[in-house]
């Protein structure tokens, strides 16, 4: 593994270091639900609405970040994203009488977060060959979770003093990341002649999606694997505090288990999925997600929550490595940012839908139905990826038969 690490370009190490540090400030996310419900006295469904409205920024940021990375600049998109993120979370440290102010600043902060991810993934794709790219995405994924392993535990300590500190800590880590990107990452976007200069028509977005329909379907189906994760981000603090009647430090423990599994096994997972069928691996990811959430539905306890986290994390690892690798391998360089953004947008869409939907269900129908919903979603994703795998195998088989028949007819002549 050391020899593969040394083959990574130097600018990636600045990107990875910045990503690790800014993710260290991610302690806002697991405590935002408790902050809004307890410190600001909003109801569960109002908290879900605030998080959903704010998360529209994440969805908008993903789409905007991919478009800017392809059409403007990878590096400038990263820097703009970090500035917006810092401004949004600094605003959240203030006090507002209604939820509108929190939703607005959360939108701004998430807008920056959403822009950062597709731009960073595109930089990784630009700087790596197809052979080393899955490994580079694995390193990036590990760096993200290295920060998130310590972030929630630090957030628990800071929240004990003041909720304001968790927002200011996020701002500080974001600005450190900005400095690292500014100093160490050069522009990687290749200049592509405009369609007008080439006398070729500009391809409409719907036509682009049609031409890459397998990649489009791949991205859209990922919603069903990501939605349970976004649902758990909303539910875990409430489960720990109000259902299991446990200390809030257990929220940090859940995130730490997730990150510890990722740090321990990601490189092993990368070796296991390398050169295997991507759709088969995504089907496996869905099965692991389903198995973990089945444990939570059957166990109804804090122990079941911890065991559930360990199991579904393996599905998350497989999907996080296979997803961007599959996309960057199958689309042209000038479209990489946009399709990587589409994949990230499914995560953001889930971040919009899950809190408001599950908040309403939690408030009006009860916890068991919430847990059942987050179990059914990855089952749907598993069936969809399995269907895509079957159809692909069937099409390949038919094409092989057709080719053999043509050869036989040619020899018959």
> Spans with pLDDT under 50 lasting ≥5 residues?
193-200, 403-408
Average of pLDDT: 83
> Given the C-alpha coordinates, what overall shape results?
globular
- Which homologous superfamily in CATH is the superfamily? MFS general substrate transporter like domains
Helix content: over 70%
Beta fraction of the residues?
A: under 5%
Instruction: Using the 3D structure, state the CATH architecture.
Output: Up-down Bundle
Computed structural class: mainly alpha
- The total count of strands amounts to 0
**Rg, Cα atoms, Å:** 22 Å
Number of contiguous helices:
16
- Written as H for each helix and E for each strand, in order along the chain, the element string is HHHHHHHHHHHHHHHH
End-to-end gap: 55 Å
């Amino acid at each position: 593994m050391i020899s593969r690490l040394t083959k990574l370009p130097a600018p990636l190490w600045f990107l990875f270091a910045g990503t690790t540090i800014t993710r260290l400030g991610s302690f806002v996310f697991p405590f935002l639900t408790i902050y809004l419900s307890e410190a600001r006295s909003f109801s569960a469904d109002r908290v879900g609405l605030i998080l959903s409205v704010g998360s529209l920024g994440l969805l908008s940021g993903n789409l905007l970040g991919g478009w800017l990375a392809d059409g403007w600049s990878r590096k400038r998109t990263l820097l703009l994203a970090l500035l917006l993120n810092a401004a949004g979370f600094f605003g959240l440290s203030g006090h507002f009488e209604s939820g509108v102010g929190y939703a607005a600043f959360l939108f701004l902060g998430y807008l920056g977060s959403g822009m950062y991810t597709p731009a960073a993934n595109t930089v990784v794709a630009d700087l790596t060959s197809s052979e080393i790219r899955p490994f580079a995405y694995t390193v990036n994924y590990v760096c993200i979770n290295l920060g998130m392993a310590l972030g929630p535990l630090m957030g628990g300590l800071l929240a004990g003093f003041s909720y304001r500190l968790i927002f200011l800590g996020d701002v500080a880590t974001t600005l450190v990341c900005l400095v690292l990107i500014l100093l160490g990452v050069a522009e990687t976007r290749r200049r592509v002649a405009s369609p007008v200069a080439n006398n070729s028509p500009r391809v409409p977005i719907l036509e682009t999606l049609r031409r890459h329909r397998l990649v489009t379907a791949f991205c859209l189906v990922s919603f069903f694997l990501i939605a349970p994760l976004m649902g758990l981000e909303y539910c875990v603090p409430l489960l720990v505090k109000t259902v299991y009647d446990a200390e809030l430090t257990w929220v940090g423990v859940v995130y730490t288990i997730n990150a510890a599994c990722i740090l321990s096994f990601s490189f092993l997972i990368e070796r296991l999925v390398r050169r295997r069928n991507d759709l088969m691996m995504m089907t496996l990811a869905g099965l692991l997600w389903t198995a973990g959430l089945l444990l939570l539905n059957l166990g109804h306890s804090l122990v079941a929550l911890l065991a559930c986290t360990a199991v579904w994390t393996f599905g998350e690892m497989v999907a996080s490595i296979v997803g961007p690798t599959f996309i960057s391998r199958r689309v042209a360089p000038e479209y990489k940012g946009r399709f990587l953004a589409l994949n990230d947008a499914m995560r953001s869409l889930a971040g919009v839908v899950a809190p408001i939907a599950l908040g309403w269900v939690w408030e009006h129908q009860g916890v068991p139905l919430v847990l059942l919903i987050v179990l059914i979603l990855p089952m749907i994703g598993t069936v969809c990826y399995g269907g895509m795998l079957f159809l692909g195998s069937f099409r390949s088989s038919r094409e092989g038969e057709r080719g053999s028949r043509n050869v036989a007819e040619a020899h018959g002549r």
